[in-house]
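Private note to self, pasted from the team thread so I don't lose it. Backbone tokens:
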């Protein structure tokens, strides 16, 4: 290379300088990811709206709205103020029904087992047909009799474990049933729907989505609503989580999926255990039911092999 007289050419950057800039770039990227995963995303709640077709749903329930608040893990991982923010999002959906899908309360194993004071925690929740709920595995870290009494005395949440209720619109009916936690509670599906005629559409509340894989074949369920998985919390596009607390891996990670005999919608929940989320923000779910005559959604249609 020729040198032009009178010009001072800069020295080429050496290998050490390249390595320094590369290290700084990688460090900046890691810092940005850490800030997002620990500080930003765990509190960036998304409102996930989805329409779900239900076979032969009565006309009066076409457009019926259900808001889901799951996995609040109060008071270990969330505060009353944060839960109220999530409830405000649910109320903004103008739901006909709000459902609370377990792991409502939580404590560290070494913390006091005293049942948390739930006065005012769910009071802002507002829905025409009320607030229904079931308990999850973390709720069982407390004295269950006292916890259930706390819900009855201080909250508008009506627990429906192993029982069902009818929602009415004129002469039209929709059944909502609930079961206990799959890991630590009592699951009695026959008891849950024992008085519900088979022609009435049914929605099942179960904290753990894995129940869909072992649900009895002779009990009609049109849609199961679950939480438990937190969406895996740490995901890589296109939605694959490093770990999902399910025997079936990413199948029941989040969203609407086909279970063994019925469809399941899994909420990512509003809490973030260990305060880390990546590509998996917490959610308040907003479900609209739609009438369908598509045979794919008929309750006797089993897409999975026996």
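Design output:
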């Amino acid at each position: 290379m020729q040198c032009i007289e009178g010009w001072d050419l800069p020295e080429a950057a050496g290998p050490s300088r390249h390595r320094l800039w590369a290290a700084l770039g990688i460090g900046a990227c890691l810092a940005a990811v850490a800030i997002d995963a620990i500080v930003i995303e765990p509190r960036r709640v998304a409102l996930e709206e989805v329409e779900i077709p239900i076979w032969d749903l009565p006309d009066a329930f076409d457009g019926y709205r259900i808001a889901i608040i799951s996995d609040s893990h109060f008071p270990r991982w969330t505060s009353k103020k944060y839960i109220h923010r999530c409830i405000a999002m649910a109320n903004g959906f103008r739901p006909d029904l709000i459902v609370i899908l377990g792991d409502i309360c939580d404590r560290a194993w070494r913390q006091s087992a005293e049942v948390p004071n739930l006065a005012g925690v769910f009071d802002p929740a507002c829905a025409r047909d009320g607030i229904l709920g079931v308990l999850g595995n973390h709720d069982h870290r407390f004295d269950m009799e006292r916890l259930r009494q706390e819900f009855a005395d201080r909250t508008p949440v009506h627990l429906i474990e192993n029982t069902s209720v009818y929602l009415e619109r004129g002469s039209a009916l929709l059944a909502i049933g609930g079961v206990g936690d799959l890991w630590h509670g009592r699951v009695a599906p026959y008891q849950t729907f024992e008085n519900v005629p088979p022609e009435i559409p049914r929605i099942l509340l179960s904290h753990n989505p894995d129940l869909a894989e072992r649900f009895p074949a002779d009990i009609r369920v049109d849609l199961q609503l679950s939480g438990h998985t937190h969406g895996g919390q740490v995901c890589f596009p296109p939605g694959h989580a490093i770990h999902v607390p399910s025997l079936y891996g990413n199948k029941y990670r989040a969203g609407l999926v086909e279970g063994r005999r019925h469809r399941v919608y899994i909420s990512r929940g509003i809490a973030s255990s260990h305060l880390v989320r990546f590509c998996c923000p917490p959610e308040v779910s907003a479900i609209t039911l739609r009438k369908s005559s598509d045979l794919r959604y008929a309750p006797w249609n089993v897409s999975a092999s026996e």
